[in-house]
Amino acid sequence: MKKIPFNNRYANLGKEFYVSTHPSSVANPELIAFNEDLAVELGLSDTTLNSPDGTAIFAGNLIPDGAEPLAVAYSGHQFGYFSPQLGDGRAILLGEIDSPDGQSFDMQLKGSGRTFYSRNGDGRSALGPVLREYLVSEAMAKLGVPTTRALAAVTTGEQVARERMIPGGIITRIATSFVRVGTFEYFASRRDVDAIKKLADYMIERRYSHVREAKHPYAALLESIIDRQANLIARWMRFGFIHGVMNTDNMSIAGETIDYGPCAFMDDYVHDRVLSSIDEGKRYAYSNQASIGLWNLTRLAESFIPLLAEESAIDTEAAVEIAKDALNKYIALYEQYWLAGMRDKTGLLSEQVGDKELIEELLSIMETNGADFTLTFYYLSQLGIDLLTEDSRIRVLFREPEQFDAWAIKWRERLKQEESVDETRQAKMQAVNPVYIPRNHQIEAAIRAAEDHGDFSVFHNLHEVLQSPYVLQEGKENYMLPPEPHEVVQQTFCGT
Ligand code: AMP
Ligand code: MG
What we know:
Bound molecules: adenosine monophosphate, magnesium ion
Distance between the termini: 36 Å
Radius of gyration: 23 Å
Low-confidence stretches: none
Mean pLDDT: 96
Number of helices: 15
Order of helices and strands: EEEHHEEEEEEHEEHHHEEHHHHHHHHH
């Protein structure tokens, strides 16, 4: 068995960035899932992780050779209010892995015990949130949305105290970096410009090496981060995904979806849908995600001001203008990514005036008719330009199918303008419109079976279907379906 080839660049940044912390042991860990495919991608399949020792490592009972575990310091704006000291309260970074194809990744345990940053928390995670993150993050990866990945999940053999006692779990997650907007804010709030610079250089080394060539690398870094974030949020929107808690400490600098708490995919489409139980002000509603992205990036840009000033030898006021210019590009970028994605979903190959209105009209009638987001686009992917008989499956999703019919006439007119060929268009649409998404009621069923009965088969079966979200799988029709009224999950909860 090979050793895990850990690199510890973050540990080398300096003591102000973290507190060295070992995971706390657990009583009786058992492996729930090990992500063999991901292990292969990372070049870890023939290491100790893929041996009986692996379970001990994923449980925090064994520190692999070469790891320098630590809890990272960060701040964050939570629901708009600044918390100067958050940090990894229930997560521990084991180290960085350099994969065979030359990329680098962070490996982190979540739920592995108290750290310096735990405040009143127990540093633990209940089994439910571990299963939820495993299912949703892996589904996101297969859908093609940038995301942290799940390498393994274990039960701890211990209970955690929440509203009641629940079995505990630990997830091992992989990110191209776990640095957050809040990590920059931590040093900005301390006016520690050296640390901000170190962190920016670290991110350039890890994820943004192309900006090194730029005349002003930090300005280019900020622009690149903004671009990736606009792209990421536009992708969420394509799948009806609601992150649920877009605090700045939950926004990744690398542009990946991170921290799956009360996140959810919508069933029936409601533009300003909120599912998180703690989001009473609807701050993180589906429809607000793009603008919250900008709000968060503005906090990041504020942290960058001293770097922008220094690299261009200008004063703070001039640096603020540079930051504003970078932020001003966000809306146009987002709109561009959103429209491109929605054109793909609706099968529009060319760009024509009026496309945005046509797409928005579909969304609007979906909302007034309680149509399922995923199924609407999936069945739309099967329609022909002329064969109106095929419309029956999509029509039943709409309370007043005539509203869909009226829209479909315009859509077909539009398709004719670009001489759309059914087979080609349908194949393209089916490659971007999934059959299966991790629906809340199915995640809930997987969690209930595991937490209440120690039965992981529901989890494994669901996970298996979500491995190929764009492929109709025989005998898996149930996984396509929206919830029955009694199955509807009205609210999702943070994993805390
Ligand atoms: P979240 O909203 O889940 O991203 O977490 C916000 C902050 O609370 C982070 O600093 C977490 O590390 C911390 N936190 C959440 N749950 C716990 C817990 N059970 N024990 C210790 N810290 C926690
Ligand atoms: Mg978080």
